[in-house]
Amino acid sequence: MAPALQITGSAAVGATTIFPPLRLEIAAGRWTVLLGPSGVGKSTLLRLVAGVETTIAFTGTITADDGSAIAPRVAMMAQSDLLLPWLDVFDNVTLGARLRNEMPDRARARAIVERVGLTPHMDRKPGTLSGGQRQRVALARTLMEARPIILLDEPFSALDARARAAMQELAADVLSDRTVLLVTHDCAEAARLGDAIFIMTEKGMDAVAPPATAPIRDFDASEVLDAQGALLARMRGAPV
Amino acid sequence: MKAARQGALSTTLRLAGVTVLMLGLWQALVALTDTPAFILPGPLRVVEALWTHHALITHHALVTMTEVLIGLVMGASLGAATAIVLAASRGARALLRPVLVFSQAVPVFALAPILTLWFGYGLESKIAMALLIIYFPVTSAFFDGLMRTPGEWLEMASVMGATPARVLTRIRIPAALPALASGLRLAAVYAPIGAIIGEWVGASQGLGYLMLFANGRAMADLMFAALVVLAFLTLVLHAVVDKAAHWLVEHQTQSPDSKVRRIVF
Predict the structure, then answer these.
(1) A86 and B252 in contact by Cβ < 8 A?
(2) B41-264, CATH topology level
(3) Structure pTM?
(4) Would you say A221 and A215 are in contact if contact means Cβ atoms under 8 Å apart?
(5) ipTM of the predicted structure?
(6) Domain-by-domain residue ranges, chain B?
(7) Looking at the partner chain, which of A90, A91, A100 has a beta carbon nearest the beta carbon of B163?
(8) Tens digit of each residue's pLDDT (9 = 90 or more) over A148-192
(9) In angstroms, how far is CA B55 from the centroid of its own chain?
């Protein structure tokens, strides 16, 4: 089962504060969106959850409500697709198992590739795919990991508007049962995808009420457009 | 397309033109200054010597190429293996790296007499020279590549719970193959130098021996002929290794169970 997560603490490098003491509750099996301008430590927070941050000192606790360790239950997807250029789509999708010295579940991998719509490109190398297709492969690789906690670090921000909308819908669909933490600086994305939305600024963390409807919401729905405007105003420092 | 072809053609023409011009100058210089052939033979004399002594030159060229090829394969394998060991183990790095760097302070050429003393006048001492001269460039190029794996890939692997051995064979080594390839290209040019030096110090066969032999008998034309053949063989070797290196990079590691089975580390 996907656990809920709780993060309390602050981060610093030496005497330089990366982010001040803050508290973030991530609901089980939901999409929690962490919205904020560049450079406020959103990605750092995500990397701390994944256990890959080595240069930044975190003071506080990051815990799952079931008490088990978090890092082994995490899959991560970033803005850069991180595909290995010498492997074809299928081998990239099954990379995790191979790196763990396990036999990849080929049938499941094929089903996942089918689900992200890349079956015709199964044997192609990343270099021959479009940006949107490459990001689909990265999503398939993340899904293949079968981890209950999914950390998304601006995974759609390098895509053009059309590919981004399509990827948001696909990701919302395939990751619906996981605990998802999405880091983004895109207010529209937050308004479409968030079950819960937090704005992170230099001062700390603020919870913002998401639109009343359930995600994923239509990009042109009025409550999404309203929320998008309100989020941007909040990010720019306007009072609530 | 047409323009590109014309460009290639004109490059070839220019190259041929320059070569003919240089050879012409050489011949003219020899003819005009009346330089004795035992000091500087003209290109025609060299071609003549190539033809007259072709059996002799072929024999010695085969010996040299044997030394070079064996030295190249052994040096490249040892160099690649060393790089992998160094990249895989922090302990090995701490222990071996200073030794490796220090070893470079000893000029390999200076070792030639010692190698001849140890391995004798046969192939072995020349193979050892060729091996030694390429070992460090290959090790260092491949090792640098292995240590420069993009950090994001390593982080992704760590989130996936990868084993260090698998990270090495599935990510770090394939990602470092272009670096290994440039080391191998260098090695293809260095290896003949090693073999020739070895032959100069003490041999009864090989192009290096043939050059000394011709020198001792004031047969400068034969010396130049041997030199031309050596240069030609080095160029061919470099071209072949370059092709092989390209192939290596293009057809990198495939998972053993993918449809096309290629190089598997």
Answers:
(1) yes
(2) MetI-like fold (1.10.3720)
(3) 0.84
(4) no
(5) 0.89
(6) 1-34, 41-264
(7) A100
(8) 999 999 999 888 998 899 999 999 999 988 999 999 999 999 999
(9) 25
